[in-house]
């Protein structure tokens, strides 16, 4: 790191920002609640002589102009970035900058910091009795809260990143200006209940400390709701009707007993008000009552995961009145009519059922941003990728994020497997000798209980929730299990509660979790998945993958500078900062690189390395997802798979299906191919072909064509099968492929599934006469070694092909553009692993220096019908791409290359509008 950089960081730290204009009154009547809209953040450096004095820090006239400014939430690091230069994040993530930067900042994060907000209340008794409550949703990881200098809660109460509590602040609230002060304490992942990253990536310098979720203020009359409505739905009359129960908890804040009326409105999935249900309540002073309002819904519209149907969302909101005055109101929450259950099959594997249908989980593990920033558009884009890849589930391991994430999942039809995280404080059990968390003491149970209650309250009504895993690598002890289960039940939890994501043990109350965590987490060959060992395709794999997820060069260049890029392909066994941390088994790419060099030949350049890596990634993720999909109807079914992982918290070199900049590459298209709804897949081990239908609809008549081609373009095996139909939600073994004994070095296998003339799935493999040999008895928890590798080096003999490419815009809808790319292989050799990359491009841009430069911008997110494809001699293929075009750039181009495909680029002509093909141009 250059000294200049450090100096600029320090000055950033002290940067002053214009202070906000204190807005009008925050809440203006009973039933009104508002998020604290902004905060000023400072530490001892900012507060100077005021020191740690909460009264002085709460003085409305205190000069906080030098403090940082944020919106409603940000961890300390997020605030720091928000108040810095825009390019700062790029600088921070580049090379090993973050290491030096963390060293520099760590001392500052070892002391308390202050979040301070000023707001106005206009207190009057126009509406009768009035009460004010402050609601937290978790502050990482401990905080003292003061209102106008008076302590509301201390760090032993407001403890835990998920502890959401409601405080009665009526006697401390002032008519006029109020000062809310929150002193946050340093987070330690082993001591505190926080959001850690285990070995996934370096921890943020502040360990995620701060107000990472909104804090709310609410005004009510005497009667108040303790949380949002909870909803239970149950099919009735064979599903022709559903019983809907809306449940709310009413609290009497006053000391006098009060009579009131609760009324809940229910809106149908088109948003039309349909039903009002009401009930009178009578509460003693400080009393609490649960009110259940039920009704029968005729002809309900059922909510399904995306691949199975629609996502109709009903909604409800409730009011409570006293003497005809509104006393409180709930937010409007949405719910779906659906059931989720699970059971253990005779093999002790968990199977989920949605609306009674067995539901094979194909999903991946989600991570929050490294600084816990929540960018809704980015989450939406990632969820669109989840669906585009054909996945149906996202696992949150201790990364429960915000309500908005669940709303997106509800809207989009993605199932969420939520739960607590492994390895740190969350799993501080006496019998856990692997984790680093401090063992739990009495007060810890209270923190975990409050966390569970709060998260249950947040999630309960969302139809996207598949399960809550109260343990990950380890199961909770009996006391914690009882407490978690009671908390969930008391909040009307009606989807599965799973003891843990592994089978090391289980609590008696819940029994076996029915999930395995037997690896791998690093590269294994494709045939691994078809064996009957460890992570192979049987049972429910709660986190497993091949370490794939190598970013393409355009993304790599954004976080690794040129000299370091060389290390990637020249030093194949060194530790890399952008892999897992240096204490992890995944700090190097050694296992992966050994396989790459042995199978495809040692890398000759960075480009060569990256192309081989994409081929490895594609092959690896496709095989994993395909094997699970293929074995769904096996004697011991593959009931689910969570790929480790979906995304990454910062720019990372592995363990993700797309990179931090949302560029989809080999790993992505491997999954997308392997997880097609109607698919035809090759089992490397039995050399047979599987027919897969993941939808709930039967399909027929269908045909399957198989062709085996050697590298000279000679067909050495083929088959054509007519099948009458594809059974719904089923997988069948079709036939063994022929001709494979004629395979000398490398051959290409093509499988095509058609319905009438429509191609449902086209799937190409590279096959070798000898498979990789697995050495299962020397397996570790994270991988299985290979004693001899498959040999793909004959691919070097393939001549360069003549590939023509043309593009045409087919649809423009607002900013959404769709284009078709037509590829044709004019050679007698196959065109292997053709890679298409979409870029925006400005011919010449004048720089500040006066020079001109071309600017090329990678398009992301981008959707491709298929990519990294292989074409037979003479074969044509049309691909579709969909992207957002803002018009800031003059040209849109597709860069094309591949294993034996000369580089070329073609333009997509936006000016011409729809309808004309534009041809390619060699580079
Ligand atoms: C609060 O202040 C407003 C304006 O200054 C005043 O009208 C109102 O009566 C005050 N409320 C109470 C409860 O004193
Ligand atoms: C962050 O947590 C780790 C334990 O996981 C601890 O060693 C470290 O001191 C913490 N950092 C800060 C700034 O408190
Ligand atoms: C809330 O605070 C008010 C004002 O101090 C008090 O009268 C009331 O009893 C409190 N209610 C509860 C439930 O603590
Ligand atoms: C709740 O009260 C608000 C404000 O009076 C009103 O707009 C809303 O329609 C009421 N909703 C219900 C469910 O009664
Ligand atoms: C399933 O789990 C139960 C309880 O641990 C055990 O008794 C039984 O043997 C297991 N069954 C199989 C097939 O592993
Ligand atoms: C990479 O290898 C080169 C040549 O062997 C060596 O000079 C260099 O120090 C290595 N770099 C790292 C980071 O290990
Ligand atoms: C391809 O052709 C070359 C030259 O005719 C021959 O040497 C080679 O064995 C052939 N390869 C295969 C796989 O048939």
From TrEMBL:
InterPro entries: Beta-gal/glucu_dom_sf, Beta-mannosidase-like_N2, EBDG/EBM, Galactose-bd-like_sf, GH, Ig-like_fold, Ig-like_GH2, Ig_GlcNase
Superkingdom of the organism of origin: Eukaryota
An MF annotation (GO) of this entry: hydrolase activity, hydrolyzing O-glycosyl compounds
Keyword Hydrolase carried by entry: yes
Domain Mannosidase Ig/CBM-like, chain residue ranges per copy: 688-769
GO biological process: polysaccharide catabolic process
Keywords, sorted A to Z: Carbohydrate metabolism, Glycosidase, Hydrolase, Polysaccharide degradation, Signal
Any single Pfam family the record assigns to this protein: Glyco_hydro_2
Record-linked PANTHER family: MANNOSYLGLYCOPROTEIN ENDO-BETA-MANNOSIDASE (PTHR43536:SF1)
Name assigned to this protein: Putative glycosyl hydrolase
Organism: Bimuria novae-zelandiae CBS 107.79
């Amino acid at each position: 790191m250059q000294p200049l950089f450090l100096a600029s960081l320090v000055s950033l730290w002290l940067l002053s920002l214009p202070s906000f204009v204190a807005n009008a009154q925050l809440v203006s009547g009973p039933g009104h609640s508002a998020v604290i809209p902004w905060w000023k953040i400072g530490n001892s450096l900012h507060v100077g002589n005021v020191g740690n004095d909460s009264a002085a820090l709460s003085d409305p006239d205190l000069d906080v102009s030098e403090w940082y400014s944020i919106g409603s939430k940000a961890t300390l690091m997020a605030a720091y970035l928000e108040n810095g230069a825009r390019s700062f994040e790029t600088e921070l993530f580049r090379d090993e900058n973050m290491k030096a930067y963390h060293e520099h900042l760590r001392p500052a994060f070892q002391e308390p910091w202050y979040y301070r907000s000023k707001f106005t209340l206009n207190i009057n008794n126009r509406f009768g009795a009035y009460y004010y409550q402050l609601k937290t949703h978790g502050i990482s990881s401990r905080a003292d809260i003061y209102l106008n200098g008076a302590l509301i809660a201390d760090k032993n109460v407001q403890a835990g990143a998920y502890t959401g509590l409601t405080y009665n602040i009526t006697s401390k609230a002032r008519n006029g200006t109020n000062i809310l002060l929150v002193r946050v304490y340093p987070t330690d992942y082993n001591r505190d209940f926080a959001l850690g990253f285990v070995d996934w990536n370096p921890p943020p310098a502040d360990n995620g400390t701060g107000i990472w979720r909104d804090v709310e203020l609410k005004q009510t009359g005497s009667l108040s709701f303790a949380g949002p409505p909870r909803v239970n739905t149950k099919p009735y009359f064979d599903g022709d009707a559903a019983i809907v129960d809306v449940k709310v908890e009413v609290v009497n804040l006053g000391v006098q007993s009060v009579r009131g009326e609760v009324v809940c409105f229910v809106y149908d999935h088109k948003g039309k008000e349909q039903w009002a249900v009401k009930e009178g309540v009578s509460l003693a002073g400080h009393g609490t009552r649960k009110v259940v309002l039920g009704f029968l819904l005729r002809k309900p519209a059922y909510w399904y995961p995306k691949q199975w149907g629609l996502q109709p969302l009903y909604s409800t909101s409730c009011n409570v009145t006293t003497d005809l005055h509104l006393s409180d109101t709930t937010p409007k929450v949405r719910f779906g009519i659906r059931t989720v259950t699970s059971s253990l099959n005779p093999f002790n594997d968990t199977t989920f059922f949605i609306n009674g249908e067995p539901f094979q989980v194909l999903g991946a593990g989600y991570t929050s941003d490294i600084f816990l920033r929540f960018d809704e558009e980015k989450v939406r884009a990632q969820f669109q990728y989840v669906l585009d890849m054909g996945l149906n589930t996202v696992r949150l391991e201790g990364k429960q994020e915000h309500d908005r994430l669940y709303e997106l999942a509800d809207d989009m039809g993605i199932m969420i497997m939520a739960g607590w995280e492994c390895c740190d404080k969350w799993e501080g059990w006496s019998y856990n000798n692997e984790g680093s968390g401090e063992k739990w003491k009495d007060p810890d149970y209270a923190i975990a209980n409050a966390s569970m209650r709060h998260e249950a309250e947040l999630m309960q009504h969302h139809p996207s929730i598949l399960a809550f895993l109260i343990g990950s690598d380890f199961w909770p002890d009996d006391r914690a299990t009882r407490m978690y289960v009671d908390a969930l039940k008391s909040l009307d939890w009606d989807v599965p509660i799973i003891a843990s994501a592994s089978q090391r043990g289980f609590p008696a109350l819940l029994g076996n979790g029915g999930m395995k965590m037997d690896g791998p987490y690093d590269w294994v060959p494709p045939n691994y998945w078809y064996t009957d060992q460890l992570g192979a395709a049987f049972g429910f794999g709660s986190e497993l993958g091949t370490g794939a997820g190598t970013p393409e060069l355009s993304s790599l260049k954004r976080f690794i500078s040129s000299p370091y890029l060389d290390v990637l392909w020249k030093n194949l066994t060194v530790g890399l900062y952008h892999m897992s941390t240096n204490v992890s088994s995944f700090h190097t790419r050694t296992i992966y690189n050994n396989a790459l060099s042995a199978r495809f030949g040692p890398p000759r350049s960075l480009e060569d390395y990256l192309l081989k890596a994409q081929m490895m990634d594609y092959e690896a993720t496709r095989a994993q997802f395909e094997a699970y999909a293929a074995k769904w109807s096996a004697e011991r079914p593959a009931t689910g798979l969570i790929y480790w992982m979906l995304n990454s918290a910062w720019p990372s070199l592995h363990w993700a299906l797309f990179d931090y900049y949302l560029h989809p590459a080999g790993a992505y298209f491997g999954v997308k191919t392997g997880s097609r709804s109607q698919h035809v897949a090759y089992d490397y081990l039995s050399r047979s072909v599987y027919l897969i239908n993941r939808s709930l609809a039967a399909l027929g008549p269908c045909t399957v064509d198989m062709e085996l081609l050697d590298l000279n373009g000679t067909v050495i095996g083929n088959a054509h099968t007519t099948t009458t139909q594809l059974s719904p939600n089923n997988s069948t073994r079709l036939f063994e492929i022929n001709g494979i004994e004629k395979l000398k070095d490398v051959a290409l296998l093509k499988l095509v599934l058609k319905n009438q003339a429509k191609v449902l799935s086209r799937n190409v493999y590279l096959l070798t006469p000898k498979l990789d040999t697995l050495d299962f008895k020397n397996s570790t928890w994270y991988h299985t070694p290979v004693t001899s590798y498959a040999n793909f080096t004959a691919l070097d003999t393939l001549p360069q092909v003549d590939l023509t490419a043309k593009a045409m815009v087919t649809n423009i809808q607002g900013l959404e553009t769709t284009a078709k790319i037509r590829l044709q292989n004019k050679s007698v050799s196959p065109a292997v692993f053709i890679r298409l990359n979409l870029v925006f491009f400005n011919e010449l841009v004048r720089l500040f220096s006066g020079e001109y430069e071309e600017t090329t911008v990678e398009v992301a997110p981008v959707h491709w019908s298929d990519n990294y494809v292989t074409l037979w001699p003479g074969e044509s293929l049309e691909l579709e791409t969909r992207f957002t075009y803002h018009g800031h750039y003059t040209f849109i181009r597709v860069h094309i290359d591949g294993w034996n495909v000369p580089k070329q680029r073609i333009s997509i002509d936006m000016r011409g509008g729809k309808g004309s093909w534009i041809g390619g141009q060699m580079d």
